[in-house]
Design goal:
The complex is a heterodimer of chains A (232) and B (253). Chain A has 232 residues and is mainly α. Helices cover 78% and strands 0% of the residues of chain A. Chain A contains 8 helices and no strands. Chain A has helices spanning 8-47, 54-67, 70-88, 99-124, 128-136, 141-171, 183-194, 197-226. Chain A starts with 7 loop residues before the first helix and ends in a 6-residue tail after the last helix. Chain B has 253 residues and is an all-alpha fold. Chain B is 72% helix and 0% strand. In chain B, helix 9 (193-204) runs antiparallel to helix 10. Chain B is globular, with a radius of gyration of 22 Å. The two termini of chain B are 35 Å apart. The mean pLDDT of chain B is 91. The chains are: A mainly alpha (232), B mainly alpha (253). The interface between A and B is large, with 52 and 44 residues.
Chain lengths: 232, 253
């Protein structure tokens, strides 16, 4: 069944697949991860805040993002970002936003909702006594959060945050729906140009598998290392 | 910039002649649910078996099931869609491949989409089932054996009924994920809700009305699923066993 295979097409397109496609995928993953964790942590602090309205707004945002498919969110932002940008700088026409920035904004905003729920659990896992102790020492809210709660929350949640990032890495393949040349997009382009769908899609699957499998093993090792003996 | 809103577009007829845009979207919801429910049936069946087998003492069976889980968990859903739709018919014997490709229009996309989503989701269910079984006190297995049940009877009458009750909350979110993930099927031509919202945007140029309508429909489905599963949870719960909200945070969607 592999007799008619043309392995050369893979070899020929390697530079294109990795230098253009994979670089895009990895850059998008890392930027969306950084932005998503920062925004997600802010959302988590808002959800747990004792201020009025703030938890409702953050909770509404998170629940909305978690109720709709990523594909729909990609479409939303692809059209929404140019309008918001145009409105923000007072232009008369929607501004042009490149596919890359559109994708970065989409994935940051979408994954933030998922990172938020992880960080919320992380913050809630810190005993309340520690917060009280922080206040008793005269620290304010930001100091207590920044020096006492968040460092521990990040440490406890590091494996889950990283697992979510592996999912993000796989999800970035969905930028295909707005015709972006990420790793899968590059493979699809070659596949359609040369009529080699079988080879290119199988190769893409193998690469995604290898990267995700390797990373999830590293996360498992980290988890074992971070685990406090006797706890859990 | 000012966007010209026109909500009445939802009541305007769509160019395909099937009725108003709103109706066009609701039929899309029908396809979303038809895809997700068929995939969910496959996912529950395979997930329950694979998850259970991973807790048995047979080393080769466990390894095989672990391999299954790892393969389908570490390849993006979109890539799997392409494998089922474009690659599988080429790898099968000629006659089978041709039969797959020559199915009547909605089915040539629908069948691969359901199989793909079903197997993709089965892996997540298998993980939940395995975790659920392992969270049960070992005494339940011993007690079952002590009253004379065989290993398969202990699973059937004691372990699995308890497990499914315990994992109802994570299964609810997996079911929602299954509905949301069915939107990926638009890449192989299933005209489900998201695909139709996109088509509506292309026909009518009313971008935000189309996506807003689809978003509202998804949110409503979400609410119905959550309420339904809560009612189910209340009906089947074993007092003291479903620890509400105590589940460890999980990555995913």
């Amino acid at each position: 069944m592999f007799a008619g295979f043309d392995f050369e097409v893979i070899q020929r397109s390697l530079p294109f697949l990795f230098r253009e496609g994979m670089v895009f995928t990895v850059t998008l993953t890392l930027m969306a991860m950084s932005g998503g964790i920062v925004f997600g942590t802010a959302l988590a602090m808002m959800r747990l805040s004792s201020l009025p309205v703030v938890p409702l707004v953050a909770g509404g945002y998170v629940n909305l993002m978690r109720s709709v498919p990523l594909v729909l969110v990609i479409f939303w932002f692809y059209f929404l970002v140019p309008w918001i940008g145009g409105w923000a700088i007072g232009a008369t026409e929607p501004i042009k936003v490149g596919a890359f920035w559109s994708a970065v904004i989409t994935f940051t905003m979408f994954e933030a909702a998922y990172y938020c729920e992880i960080m919320r659990a992380g913050i809630q896992s810190i005993p309340r006594g520690q917060v009280a102790a922080g206040y008793a020492l005269g620290l304010n809210y930001w100091q207590t959060m920044g020096h006492v709660v968040l460092p521990q929350a990040f440490r406890n949640m590091a494996p889950v945050l990283l697992t979510q990032t592996i999912i993000l890495f796989q999800d970035t393949s969905l930028v295909y729906v707005i015709s972006v040349t990420d790793f899968l997009g590059a493979a699809a382009k070659v596949a359609n140009r040369d009529g080699r769908l079988v080879e290119m899609y199988l190769f893409a699957a193998v690469v995604y598998f290898a990267v995700s499998f390797f990373l999830s093993h590293q996360v498992k090792r980290l988890q074992a290392k971070l685990a406090v003996p006797g706890k859990l | 910039v000012t966007y010209s809103w026109n909500w009445e577009i939802l009541l305007a007829p769509e160019p395909g002649g099937s009725g108003a845009y709103l109706q066009y979207l609701v039929v899309g919801l029908g396809w979303t649910l038809a895809t997700a429910l068929a995939a969910w049936a496959i996912a529950l069946a395979i997930g329950a078996v694979v998850g259970t087998l991973r807790t048995t003492p047979y080393r080769w069976v466990v390894r095989l099931c672990t391999a299954y889980v790892e393969v389908f968990r570490n390849v993006p859903l979109l890539v799997q869609m392409f494998l089922w739709f474009f690659v599988l018919p080429e790898l099968l014997p000629q006659a089978w491949g041709d039969a797959l490709k020559s199915m009547a229009p909605p089915w040539a996309s629908y069948v691969p989409a359901v199989l793909c989503l079903g197997i993709y989701t089965s892996v997540r269910i298998a993980e939940q089932v395995r975790a659920g079984i392992q969270s049960l006190p070992r005494g339940q297995m011993f007690a079952g054996t002590a009253i004379g049940l065989s290993a398969s009877q202990v699973y059937r009458f004691v372990i699995l009924p308890m497990t499914f009750r315990i994992i109802l909350p994570p299964l609810t979110s997996e079911f929602m994920n299954c509905i949301k993930n069915s939107s990926v099927a638009l890449t192989i031509g299933v005209m489900e809700l998201t695909a139709r919202a996109r088509a509506m945007q292309e026909f009518s140029f009313q971008v935000f009305e189309a996506f807003a309508a689809a978003t509202v429909i998804y949110v409503l489905v979400n609410i119905v699923v959550v309420l339904g599963m809560r009612a189910l949870e209340r009906r089947v719960r074993v007092p003291g066993y479903i620890a509400a909200g105590a589940a460890a945070p999980q990555a995913g969607h």
